[in-house]
């Protein structure tokens, strides 16, 4: 958690920071080259499951970077670096393009699979974003309601009024909106009331131990009720066992994601398991 918060707060200069800067520059150079390559960035897809029926209700696209010499580098490591520069814009464009082409591919084989994409603060707050999104939807011929944009509370806190405006523009395209990692960002009740979102995702840190920790259970229960009372769909993140899935279902939580149901996998695997098609 400490490392995560550092990206959003101020950092004091220290010899460590200087070392890190050299690494960051190398990483940025590699990322810049990766963006000119069509192979290095891919998406994996994690199933989102309806808890009462076990049905697939959509997928979340998660970026994967296969570095030519270092191998796989997790998004938690390279996305915060991308976000410090304007390279985040072509990256977001790449992710959205792959995700929408995939949604189109599934549509072509007869499956309406809603796809959620994580959006960095900088991308959402970029004033050209809604137009670019509209262009991508047009180009791929994917109906807006098959796309969901996930943002975190950090984005909201960075600039609440621009966030609200941007989310409204995104929704005007029919695209769904979601608050990711809910509970970790100190979002105030006021923002929740004002935010034009369709879905709330309860952070894994609360879900993970809800069966054994009564206070986590209470927080998850409260988040489910809060979401429902605001007319939002609620997703539990990071469900790793049947007991947790059961407990969530008892709380009337709508949907869930987690290793208990499925890990993030390449599109063909997702389709094979959930769509019963072979491509
Ligand atoms: P997130 O959006 O909250 O995604 C959920 C993360 O939890 C994913 O990690 C997923 O693999 C992992 N996860 C899912 N189920 C379980 C589980 O049952 N147990 C555990 N321990 N973990 C689970 P991943 O793929 O490493 O992504 C980390 C974060 O990186 C994401 O968190 C998201 O904030 C960011 N991210 C990923 N792809 C993109 C992207 O294309 N664009 C942007 N801006 N951010 C992205
Ligand atoms: Mg997410
Ligand atoms: Mg999350
Ligand atoms: Mg997360």
Automatic annotation (TrEMBL):
GO terms for molecular function: cyclic-guanylate-specific phosphodiesterase activity. Coiled coil: none annotated. Keywords: Membrane, Transmembrane, Transmembrane helix. Residues 24-278 form the EAL domain. This is Diguanylate cyclase (GGDEF)-like protein. It comes from Actinoplanes lutulentus. The chain holds residues 358 to 636 of 636 of the full protein.
């Amino acid at each position: 958690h400490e490392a995560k918060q550092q990206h959003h707060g101020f950092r004091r200069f220290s010899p460590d920071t200087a070392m890190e800067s050299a690494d960051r520059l190398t990483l940025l150079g590699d990322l810049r080259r990766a963006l000119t390559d069509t192979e290095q960035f891919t998406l994996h897809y994690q199933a989102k499951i309806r808890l009462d029926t076990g049905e697939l209700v959509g997928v979340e696209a998660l970026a994967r970077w296969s570095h030519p010499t270092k191998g796989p580098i997790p998004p938690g490591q390279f996305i915060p670096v991308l976000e410090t520069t304007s390279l985040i814009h072509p990256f977001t464009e790449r992710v959205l393009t792959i995700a929408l082409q995939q949604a189109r591919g599934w549509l072509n084989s007869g499956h309406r699979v809603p796809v959620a994409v994580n959006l960095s603060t900088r991308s959402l707050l970029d004033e050209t974003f809604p137009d670019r999104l509209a262009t991508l939807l047009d180009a791929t011929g994917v109906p807006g309601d098959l796309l969901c944009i996930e943002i975190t509370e950090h984005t909201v806190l960075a600039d609440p009024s621009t966030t609200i405006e941007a989310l409204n523009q995104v929704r005007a395209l029919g695209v769904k909106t979601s608050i990711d990692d809910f509970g970790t960002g100190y979002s105030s009740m006021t923002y929740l009331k004002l935010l034009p979102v369709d879905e709330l995702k309860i952070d894994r840190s609360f879900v993970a131990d809800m069966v054994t920790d009564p206070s986590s259970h209470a927080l998850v229960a409260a988040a489910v009720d809060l979401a429902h009372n605001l007319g939002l769909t609620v997703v539990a993140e990071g469900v790793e066992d049947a007991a947790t899935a059961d407990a969530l279902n008892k709380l009337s939580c709508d949907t869930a994601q987690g290793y208990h149901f499925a890990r993030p996998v390449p599109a063909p695997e997702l389709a094979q398991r959930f769509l019963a098609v072979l491509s």
